[in-house]
Amino acid sequence: MENREVLLSVQNLEQFFKMGRKDLKAVNDISFDIYKGEVFGLVGESGCGKTTTGRSIIRLYDITGGSVYFKGQRIAAGIRRYKAAIKEERKALKEDLKKLAGDNAAIEARKAQAKELIEKMNAEIASARYDHKNCNKIYAQKQMEKVTAHYDDLISKATSAEEKRKLEKEKNDELKLAKKERLTNKIQMIFQDPIASLDPRMTVKETIAEGLKIRGIKDKEYIKQEVLKVLDKVGLVSEHATRYPHEFSGGQRQRIGIARAIVLHPELIIADEPISALDVSIQAQVINLLNDLRKELGLTILFIAHDLSVVKYFSDRIGVMYYGNLVELASSDQLFAHPMHPYTRSLLSAIPLPDPHSEKNRKRIVYNPLIDHDYSAQEPTFREVSPGHFVLCNDEEEAKYKKEFNL
Amino acid sequence: MEKKLEVKNLQISFRTQQGILKAVRDISFDLYKGETLALVGESGSGKSVTNRAIMGILAGNGIIEGGEILYDGQDLVQISEEDFHKLRGDKIAMIFQDPMSSLNPIMKVGKQLTEAMLLKNAASRRNARKLFNDKLTLLNKNMDEVNPAEATQNKEDCKTFDAFSVHATKLEGVFNKAHNEAEELKLDIDNFVFLVEKKQNVRAKSSLRDFVKRLPETYHPRVVIENDKVKTLIEKLSAEASAVRKNKVTESTLDILRQISKVLDESIDKDKPNFFCLGYYVMKNPNADVDNMELCELNKMVRQCLDDEFMIEFIKKGKAAILNSHNISMQKKRDNMSPLQEALDYFKTGEMDEKKANEVANKVIPLVNEAIDRLEIVKNSTEYTFGSSLKGNIKKYFDGLKQNESEAKRFAKEDAKYQRIIAKGKTPDWRVIPAVYFDEKLGVRNICNVIENLMNSYQRDFDTDNLFNSEEKMIALVDYLKEQASTLVFKVTKKIAKARALKLLEEVGIPEPVIRYNQYPFEFSGGMRQRIVIAIALAANPDILICDEPTTALDVTIQAQILELINKLKAQRNLSVIFITHNLGVVANMADRIAVMYAGKIVEKGTAEDVFYNPKHPYTWALLSSMPDLDTKDKLEAIPGTPPNMIYPPKGDAFAARNKYALEIDFEQQPPMFKVSETHQAATWLLHPSAPKIDPPKIVTDRIERMKKKEEARRGK
User: Which residues of chain B does CATH 3.40.50.300 include?
Assistant: First the structure.
């Protein structure tokens, strides 16, 4: 577990939306890691913030607080928390100064302390802003360095002048590409509704090639080859390339959406309810396709859905969200075998199964946070109750869960 | 069990640019009272189209090519839009997939809820009196036939029956008025208390005075008994009302109001007296003091009185009358068999001219109509709709023939033009719409079906004739008359409608209905919106509820809640539910019986146990195996390909092209329905005795095995 490579790390992610004077806390302080090559499922009822989480990661929103690290590089950071800290410190300083009136030495010490803290916060803000703006540049720089190192080595070993010239040219081409390499391109998204997410006035080829063009590839033949390659991968044929989205059935449209996502060779795919809008028989096709692609391309997938049986089937680990909080996170077998948080239990009890006998005897567990938790003594935190199994709870509940499952 | 709805050989097509799209191809099913029938299938399999036809809301280019939808003695395919108004929403209600698009965005939820109640109430009251009179007159007529000597006595009896029912309705009217008044007052008081609690502006003084004034109106000996408690409460309240200053309502006033509300609530829920009997008693003893008696004793006493003096005699006569009417009708039916056979023979030849065909039809239809036993409460739809169906089908046949000629002409003309342009070496930017011909054979078969159905129904009647129980029928008739009489005085005012709507909102699980009542649909979340839609569908007390994917747009927890709600309401109101979905988990939860549809046909039908534990059709296997459950680990078996284009329906089994178990005959010939058991049927050649034995895919058998083990484990516990 420990030695696996962390591909995406979300730390204390906060995403608030302004609603008049109040804030809508769509995502409220969640943290999780996604390891390379796994499928991470995110479930919860509608409005709990799972889609917002996905969109924050791919930087469709500017996040309010926390950081998102992708391949070790911070790609998104929020500054609101630091700003709030500065504000608070200034307020506290004012009051303290009033109290300390007369004692000059103490005042100086307090001022220095405050200054230090504010400076620290300002530095954090600056670094967050810098990372947010320049993450792609930094990544491109790194890639260029890699390319340079690679070719320099080759060139130094080259014997003839002709070979050297050839390598030089190759190096320059590669460098050009590497310069345009963007870290955020390595994350791609598949949307819920294939009809709404495809431009009706673009042919399939144009839709898929758009990403390549934006990336700066001008070689038309190369683009064509790439498009045909991905079409083949997602189970469409080359004739489909010149057609428009409305000429396809629902499952095929979703395949186009998937093709568009994988054409840029992403490492992480955020699949936002990719099968909810599809018919039963087509759902299985799309799940199978995603499964195949994942094995073939070594993809990591963040799978957002509310159909729990599909999530269970498809995911390695599952996070359960409830009103902006991550309440439980565990491997999918662990989660379904030993659900700890009462919300998870209620969610699992609501899954309809294709079995009339068990369905007619199924008892739904109702979750009411006011009744099920008593947080008057201690606020809950997100903690690891058993290896790899995280739950949002306080001390008392942790003890209870541990006792319940003999941990 | 009582059949609520029968769909027979229904065929629906859509006229499109490319040609005729056959959406529903010859499906039949019955819906019994109090059961849930689930229709399962992919999109485009014709589930929604069938139900839209039942509701009479097919799209403009839809044509019902044949078949019948029978409900309460009417063929919904034949009846006019005017008649449909009386059924739609009132008797057959529908819940749609997307709650937002089925609610009016600029109308408050409360108004949408009460609209139907108010409209339907006025119409049903008008109707009730007519039905009551018709049935009673008919009964009288039959009594006379049985015993012509006692004609005057019979007339007298029926008059008495009518008279005391009038008395009863009068009494009930007074009761209802007070009852409504109490309900309205309670609503207003609750509302007032609510507003004060929420610190909103109220007109305290005038409101309190209004309450004091209105309270006595609720005094009915059977509603709010004017006891000392209420009296003291009123006195206190009026004292408080005069003491109110500057709209400030004190806690003590609120307390009194709450107490009054409680008393009113108790009185609203009180049992009703037996007005039907009470009417007779009051008629006979005008000076009797019935108001102060214990309800239970009173009911017993008046019942006794009615039975002793009148009812037993009346029922005896009525029984004879009903038997008479039944026997006459049976005799007529027996006589009808031979003319019907003649007509059938004539139509079967397929060579008819319009005049002769109409003559034949006009000869049989009156005979059949005469043979209907009009005293039956539960109408036999086949008999009632025979005339309209036969005439409709004959008309359709001859219209079709005429249309075929003009269609052929049109096609020839357009095609010639097209060819001319082609010959010139140009490519036209338009296409020739392919010629669509009316299927003559189908027309003939439809006509014959109508007659055959009737004959079969007659035959069933002959077979079950010895089971006829005239006593049961008479009691049912009296109950029916009672119901009609009390519908007459069942008046719904706006306030009452509001009170009912609030109750309904509470029933479907919406918290704080008082606030919600005055909100617009956009202020609700998805699940809440769907609850509102359900409440609206139930507002008019329908017999049949059609749910068209009501939970597809909702997430798991809300879905479970909505399903529980529908199940609860179904049990409470004894509804018949048609449930359309493609989620097999939901089906397992809801359905008593399941019909799996594919490409406009029912491919398998049976009870939920049959379909889930012993599926027979490859399409059902495919559906089951393409859906993961919590224990699935293997690769899912997706159904390859897409459903066929129904403009050119395939020759054999429509599923054959996507079916890896397809036999050769599947591509040649459509399979008939094979019977697996009494309740279970499937249309696949695999069930033919000479077919090779093929087991369902492993993923399905494994799951069934697992489910059986689980079931055993549960039983063992």
Answer: 3-107+491-591
Least Cα distance to B272 among B482, B45, B52 occurs for B482
Rounded to a whole number, what is the distance in angstroms from the first to the last CA of chain B?
33
Contacts of B591 in chain A (CB under 8 A): 356
In angstroms, the CA A354 to CA A352 distance is 7
- Return phi, psi of residue A257, to 5°: -60, -40
Burial zone of B401 (CB within 10 Å; 0-12 exposed, 13-18 middle, 19+ buried): middle
Of A249, A347, A354, the CB nearest to B627: A354
Which of B499, B514, B506, B538 has the alpha carbon at shortest distance from B108? B514
Cβ B692 vs Cβ B700: under 8 Å: no
Give the gap in angstroms from C-alpha B46 to the nearest C-alpha of chain A.
14
For A16-48, what is the HEC assignment? EEEECCEEEEEEEEEEEEEECCCEEEEECCCCC
Q: Could you say which residues from 613 to 642 on chain B have a Cβ atom under 8 Å away from some Cβ of chain A?
A: 613, 622-624, 626-630, 632-633, 635-639, 642
Q: What is the pLDDT of residues B505-556, one digit of tens each?
A: 887 878 788 888 889 998 887 778 888 888 888 887 888 999 988 887 777 8
- Contact residues for B266 (Cβ-Cβ < 8 A; gap 6+): none
Place of tokens 């917002």: A52
* Residue ranges of chain A whose pLDDT lies below 50: 1
Under DSSP, the state recorded for A65 is: E
Q: Say whether B585 and A356 touch across the interface (CB within 8 A).
A: no
Residue carrying structure tokens 């070719």: A151
pLDDT digits over B419-473, tens only? 898 888 888 777 777 777 888 888 888 888 888 888 888 888 888 888 788 888 8
- Is there a contact between B106 and B44 (Cβ–Cβ < 8 Å)? no
**Backbone phi, psi, residue B66, to 5°:** -170, 170
Q: Which residues of B touch A281 (CB under 8 A)?
A: 42, 622-623, 626, 638-639
Q: Are B636 and A313 in contact (CB < 8 Å)? A: yes
B198: closest CA of chain A, how far (Å): 22
pLDDT of res. A269: 93
Q: In chain B, which segments carry CATH 1.20.120?
A: 315-477
Extents of the domains making up chain A: 85-180, 199-266
B498 contacts B517 by C-beta, under 8 angstroms: yes
What would the CATH number be for the domain defined by B315-477?
1.20.120
A281 interfaces chain B, CB cutoff of 8 Å: yes
Determine the residue among A240, A253, A359, A367 to mutate to test chain B binding: the one whose Cβ has the most chain B Cβ atoms within 10 Å.
Answer: A359
Which residue(s) pair with B95 in the sheet? B547
Count of beta carbons in the 10 Å neighbourhood of residue B630: 13
A288 and B CB contact within 8 Å? yes
**Longest distance between any two alpha carbons in chain A, whole Å:** 85
Which chain B residues in 192-231 lie under 8 Å from chain A, judged by CB atoms? Answer: none
Query: By CA distance, what is A306's nearest residue in B?
Result: B555
Asked whether the beta carbons of residue A353 and residue B588 sit closer than 8 angstroms, the reply is yes
Chain A CB contacts of B638 under 8 Å are 281-282, 284-285, 287-288
Q: Which structure tokens are listed for A165?
A: 């010239």
The answer to whether B446 touches B465, Cβ cutoff 8 Å, is no
A32 forms beta bridges with A10
Give the C-alpha separation, A180 to A187, whole Å.
15
**A-contacting residues in B 442-501 (Cβ below 8 Å):** none
Query: What is the rounded distance in angstroms from the CA atom of residue B43 to the CA atom of residue A23?
Result: 41
Of B525, B585, B710, the CB nearest to A352: B585
User: For domain B3-107+491-591, which CATH number applies: 3.40.50.300, 1.20.120.450, 3.20.20.70, 1.10.10.10?
Assistant: 3.40.50.300
